[in-house]
Specification:
The chain is 76% helix and 0% strand. The protein has 85 residues and is mainly α. Helix 1 (7-23) crosses helix 4 (65-82) and helix 2 (28-45) packs across helix 3. It is globular.
């Protein structure tokens, strides 16, 4: 089973990776850029495994680059607030 199969597991995985990046001293801008790159890759290369990922992929596909950065930043905030819950 892939971590992408379950939304809560995916958020937990992202939250753990975010915690690790912050522990390693990555600043918010670097984290934001990485989140954008990961979001872009997932939207273009990976099939959504659950309804939440499908919504994100659909939003990503119609968003401008600025809006995609906003989506990526919101995902970072989401996992900061409750990624492992």
């Amino acid at each position: 089973m892939s971590v992408l199969d379950n939304w809560n597991e995916w958020k937990g995985f992202l939250g753990d990776r975010l915690d690790h990046a912050q522990t390693e001293g990555m600043n918010d801008q670097v984290i934001s850029n990485l989140a954008f790159e990961i979001g872009d890759y997932l939207a273009k290369q990976v099939e959504a495994k659950n309804p939440q990922e499908k919504v994100l992929a659909d939003l990503w596909s119609v968003a401008s680059e600025q809006e995609q950065h906003a989506i990526a930043n919101m995902m970072v905030k989401l996992v900061q607030n409750n990624g492992s819950h």
